[in-house]
Each structure stands twice: as structure tokens, then as C-alpha cells.
Design goal:
six-stranded mixed beta sheet, about 0% helix, 10 strands, mainly beta, four-stranded antiparallel beta sheet
Length: about 120
Amino acid sequence: QVQLVESGGGLVQPGGSLRLSCAASGSIFNIYTMGWYRQAPGKKRELVARFIYGDTTDYADSVKGRFTISRDKAKNTVLLQMNSLKPEDTAIYYCNTAFPATWGSWGQGTQVTVSS
């Protein structure tokens, strides 16, 4: 099993920034194929950013140019730097594997609220 713990969310004003962290552990953990997802009220969970393979990344169109996914191999973490935040970015953010077939369980997520 893999354990996923998200952190770094909070309340921020439009235009602000947040840095999310995902601590992952377990026998199936692979930081090369991890990603970030989010679920806003009334919407399905959607992909935000992920590593597909190696250093190849994939971003949702809505966050391109504003969000950056990265790794810290020494700490076994996946990070998401979020800049120029908008109210529509408000959601619970989760990390998980980059491909649905290997999702397994989800963590509790971290709440991001962008509001004036």
C-alpha cells in the first residue's frame, strides 16, 4: 500500500501563491509517476498536473503558466507551486499516481481557498 499525505493548503487572496506538498511512502511509491488532482464543489475530481514519465509533465490547460509540479527525491515528496491564484482554483487538492489504474486509495487532501 501507498500512504499519501497532502499539506500546504490554506486561504489566500486572488493573485497570491501557495506551495503544496505531497509526502508519499509505500512499496509501490514512484515519484516519477505522481500527480496532483483537485475537486471543486459540484465538480468531478480533475487532473491538475502530473509527471507522465521521467521529467515529462502534463498540465491542465487552466493552470498552465501558473502552476509548476516538481519533486524532492531526498524527501520522497511531490510539490505543486501555485502562483497567480484565481477564485476558480478553490478546491481540495490531492496527490496520487499519475495513472488511474494505479490510484488505489486517496489521502484526505488539502483545502485551497482563493477569496477576497
